[in-house]
Write a structure and sequence with these properties.
400 residues, Rossmann fold, eight-stranded mixed β-sheet, five-stranded parallel β-sheet, 14 helices, 21 strands, 23% strand, binds cytidine-5'-monophosphate
Length: 400
């Protein structure tokens, strides 16, 4: 399995006719950014809301609409089309598309594709609240669920028609997350458990002050998501961040290094540990119960004690995961320091990044080198999501 495992994944996206169709454009953008291929099918009703050109430009693929189009059929027959992807997604899934799929109708390309496919199907319903609550739609929903269709949403809220209730299509990030989780099923890391630490820790000085750092958690969250996309069962132990938990990932939120270590230990046994968190090396010796007052004596002396090293503790644990990966943010002699860290911490790989080049901490991309007992592999600067996917693919390789 190569580094491009996820980019080889393909989604067949059926865009139905509803005002929420515009959100399909954002969904395509998110999928493409994650390296997932998208082949759109636009229904005649869908084409009243978004144009084939927008879909095709974002998906970088041809848009299919007609069942009996000679050119489309010559290029790729509808049966072949229905099996050309790893997952079929219907967003928006209108009441009409749900009814057709539940009853096995095949009068147009979208319905035929849903009947002919042998791939998993995910639907994001979008319709007026009365249509959603109608007994017929609820019957169709139960039938489709029994047939194995996975649903994301609908959400509750104000509707384009002026009413309020359930029926709004789930937001693109939620659909994206459900797709990534669905694509991971049956992946090379299926059945493997992974623990990932991410973000900063926050060590309280008193009830209002803390010692923390600039870690955003982006790299750790991306790794958690990439491992889940390959089928791993992921526990993400996260310090305080502004990020949403990736779908299909179990997030345990902590503040301090001691809490982070305890959460990691309770996630064991695991096959994989990736310690990405920027853990504070020290914490205030005595946590003050009330806010320290500014006084005539000048600033208080902050006594510090060392925090536990989570990476080293997991590496030396008698329940040690088979593969333990650490990160090293260095400013000088990056690779030499990383090699020394590998030995000192007892982990299997160190992912070294040069934080001295500016922007890695909190930024969107990263230039890393993978240091193992076998040597050093340098990767070009790339998006943190891409670093995560490559690392996940390399981890999957290790387990083959
Ligand atoms: O020693 P240093 O902080 O440079 O090591 C970085 C690596 O060790 C990272 O993988 C980080 O998540 C991990 N670490 C840890 N617990 C600490 C300090 C660092 O898990 N207390």
């Amino acid at each position: 399995m190569g580094a491009s495992a996820l980019s080889e994944k393909r989604v067949l996206l059926i865009v139905g006719g509803g005002i929420a169709a515009y959100k399909a454009l954002e969904l395509i953008r998110l999928l493409r950014k994650a390296g997932v291929g998208v082949r759109p099918i636009l229904t005649a009703a869908g084409a009243q809301f978004v144009t084939p050109l927008s879909l095709s430009a974002l998906a970088e693929d041809k848009v299919y609409s007609e069942l009996f189009s000679l050119t489309d059929e010559a290029e790729m027959g509808h049966i072949e089309l229905s099996r050309s992807a790893d997952l079929v997604v219907v967003a928006p899934a209108t009441a009409d598309l749900m009814a057709k799929a539940a009853n096995g109708l095949a009068g147009d390309l979208a319905a035929t594709t849903l009947l002919a496919t042998d791939k998993p199907v995910l639907m994001a319903p979008a319709m007026n609240v009365r249509m959603w609550e109608h007994a017929a739609t609820q019957r169709n929903l139960a039938t489709l669920r029994a047939d194995g269709v996975v649903f994301v949403g609908p959400d509750e809220g104000a509707m384009a028609c002026g009413e309020y209730g359930a029926g709004r299509m789930a937001e693109p990030p939620a659909i994206f997350a459900a797709i990534m989780a669905a694509l991971g099923r049956g992946g090379p890391l299926e059945g493997k458990r992974a623990v990932i630490t991410a973000g900063p820790t926050a060590e309280p000085i008193d009830p209002v002050r803390l010692i923390t750092n600039r870690s955003s958690g982006k790299q750790g969250y991306a790794i958690a998501q990439a491992l889940a996309a390959l089928g791993a069962d992921v526990t993400l132990v996260s310090g305080p961040t502004a990020l949403a938990a990736p779908a299909g990932v179990r997030r345990v939120e902590v503040e301090t290094a001691c809490q982070m270590l305890a959460a990691c230990e309770s996630a064991l046994p695991a096959d994989i540990a990736v310690c990405v968190a920027a853990v504070a090396d020290w914490r205030p010796q005595n946590l003050q119960g009330s806010k320290i007052k500014k006084g005539a004596d000048g600033p208080p002396a902050l006594g510090l004690v060392e925090n536990p090293d989570i990476l080293a503790t997991l590496s030396k644990s008698n329940r040690r995961p088979k593969l333990v990966v650490g990160f090293a943010a260095e400013t000088d002699d990056v690779e030499a320091n990383a090699a020394a860290k590998l030995a000192r911490k007892g982990c299997d790989w160190i992912v070294a990044n040069d934080v001295g080049q500016g922007g890695t901490l909190g930024g969107d991309d990263n230039a890393v080198a993978i240091v193992t007992s076998e040597g050093i592999e340098r990767w070009d600067r790339m998006a943190k999501g891409e670093v995560a996917r490559r690392l996940a693919a390399r981890i999957a390789q290790e387990f083959q």
